[in-house]
Amino acid sequence: PVKAAAKTSTSATQTTATVDKAQVKAFKEQVEKHLRTTIGTSPVKASKLAWWQAVVATVNEDIFGRLTDTQQTHAKNDTRAVHYLSAEFLMGRLTINNLTNLEKFDVAREALKEFGLDINEICEEEPDMALGNGGLGRLAACFMDSLATCNYPCVGYGIHYENGLFRQEIRAGKQVERPDSWREYGCPWEACRPESVQNIPLGGYVEKQTAPDGSQCSVWHPSSMIKGVPWDIPVVGYRGSSVAILRLWESRSTEQFNWDVFNAGGYVDAQAEKSLAETISKVLYPNDSTEAGKELRLTQQYFFCACSLRDILRRYKRSHHNDFSEFAAKIAIQLNDTHPTIAIPELMRLLIDEEGLSYDQAWDITSKTFNYTNHTLLPEALEKWPVYIFEKLLPRHLELIYEINFRFLNGPVEAKWPGNNEIKSRLSIIEEGEVRKVRMANLCVITSEHVNGVAKIHSKLVKENLFPDYAQLWPNKFCNVTNGVTPRRWILSCNRGLAELYNDVAGKDWPLDLDKCEVLKKYADKKEYQDRFMKIKHDNKVALAKTIKELTGVEVDPNAMFDVQVKRLHEYKRQHLNLLYIMSLYKSLLEDPDQDIVPQVFIFGAKAAPAYTLAKDIIFAINAVGEKINNDLRIKGKLKVVFLPNYRVSLAEKIIPAADISEQISTAGYEASGTSNMKFSMNGALTLGTMDGANIEIVEQAGIENNFIFGLSVDEVLELKPRYNPWDYYNADHDLKAVVDWLDSDFFTPGQPGALSSIKTSLLNNGDPFLVLADFASYKEAHQRAQKLFKDKAKWARAAMINSATMGIFSSDRSIRDYAENIWTLRSQIVKK
Ligand code: 73E
């Protein structure tokens, strides 16, 4: 049973809006009804979990009606729809977001208050849906919100992982990975759809047959079948526009899967074999911006693409029967990076082998259907699959890939560069070598109508540096769609104080048209509004300080400057640059404890891929340095360093509204876009960052003078890289040398000398691949600018307000409209209630 909260929420997410009493009463009755009849308990006995489940059941009543309306409208209009294929959807929690989008949050809050409950506490019961690694997966989730809000006909397709991204624990300063069984007790948002189950063939061999007319054809004899079971998660658009569907596939064994074992009378063995098929959707690969290269990963990719395409074809055939002439006009497919590339040969195969189309007809359709988004230039993330894995798992697909490649090289490439084998080997889908490989990105570029990057600078680099030959062949294929984030989750739901301020100055429609927030600029010089803005920030910082205390035991002062770097741990994101700076600040404080510096709290959150040793070492180093600094009385609490364990969407929602400084410090040219940079800026943090990814576009909007830009530019990095010697910087800068050497001592790791040395080794002996030392001095100087401005409360408030006010173009609604207009040629459909 839940004890009634003595005093209901005083959290920063409280609003003062008046709420319709009748609606509150109705909501209360519904929750109580569900508590008794759906959950099987009563208000006196119910646990927090039961209350949460009853709230979800109540919300679902609203959602399912709208879902049916949406689907009927789209079926009736038979309009073009987009199908967003993504191996990751990082949805986070849904309750507060769904209530917000249905405009029921205040009603629900008041209803729960009447039961003596705090809505925020009840919603803490919901596990995050962590079916993604980081930015790429969260982008897909923001896009679903915008697709629904902007009323575009769409389906998101992905994998129903049994275990999402690992839960991170920090033990003795080190990352420990634990499984994330997010639906151990069921997920009340999802609905299983047994009527749409698919059977997917795998393995076996291809037999060549000669048709009566003498032509050759291929017949695939798969060795096993896997069942794909769809789970639907409704995605509610803001203000009850349409409800979109996210369909996630779970793998199960079929009887055919273990047919032979079964026939041999091996009932028990057959049960054991089941696990093989069920392994496919068991776990999300925990690599961000790196490729796993494992057979199981390709099987996962193929499995969800094959299920999704059958689902798409089934729906298409419902209205068009076996006439495929309209297919490309009705169906757009977006490939979220190369992870779903196998959908390309699978669609070819379905059209040729199952539907009886000719190769040319199938290619005509396929090449008009697909589009590809590139998210990274990092070579280790560009997927290449050994040919032998294809031979084993997908022999017919390999044959089709060879055919696509042959026609491409002997068609357009030969026409443009006759007899040029060097270009051919660069452009070929097949990489020759000891182990021949299939280059998935090449297959995507060759097939897709449009190829886009995710920020202006990134799209330019995709075209000019990653695919220069393709760009010569097809200059118009390449375009840019700068990423965006949904203001419903990233302002309205997570920062109610700021949302109210925008309601007051911009009217209530700003969540649908974020450009409206620009009016706040007019108030940026007015003391009254500066005070209000900074009071909101302060309240958020008080709330975060409480969370920090609960999670780490560290006490932080909400008046200090909150400097935040939260993102996956990767060398190119340079958390170690941040750490070196903190060490230098600490060193200078030890040298002069009375110096007048701004009190600062450095906040980190980051998961490292389990096999990425250096990344894990950096996490350990942050914790070790933090431990020392936080307990050093000599510095009088002027500096604190906290590492918040298990960074995830729900934690981001608490951290981002409370940040003063947003650390976006990747080596220029390496962060394709970034999306947390946009969320921070919207919530009034100032960016301390490099001219990389979307940072460039952020300062274009908010003004370079209202942020702290430092470091080498993309061009400078490209110029320096070939002749870079980190020792030059190390030897020339006393302070830098001192902190790098400090890593070698046992100062931060008493009794464990050398525990932090791997970082020094990477910076000096391994060439400092991400130019940390080259940017150190400039980074330090940017921090000094930030401290200086922070001392001037009015100027800081003004800059923070301008940042927040000018982020209109980073609404994911704008991104989705760009895709709809320039890539999908999609029209929005008003759904009638
Ligand atoms: O810059 C981010 C970008 O904002 C980029 O690193 C990230 O995608 C975000 C959204 O566009 C990204 N993730 C991956 N590649 N780029 C990736 C690669 C392999 C596995 C999982 C994720």
Overall pLDDT confidence: 95
The poorly predicted ranges are: 4-14
CATH topology of the largest domain: Rossmann fold
The molecules bound to the chains, other than polymers, are: ligand 73E
Q: Cα distance, first to last residue?
A: 39 Å
* Morphology: globular
How helical, in percent, are the residues? 40-55%
CATH classification class of the largest domain: Alpha Beta
- The helix count comes to 33
Return the domain count: 2
Number of separate strands: 25
Based on helices, strands and strand pairing, what is the structural class?
A: alpha/beta
**CATH homolog superfamily of the largest domain:** Glycogen Phosphorylase B
Q: Rounded to an integer, what's the Rg over CA atoms?
A: 27 Å
Strand content: 5-15%
Largest β-sheet summary: 10 strands, mixed
* CATH arch. level architecture of the largest domain: 3-Layer(aba) Sandwich
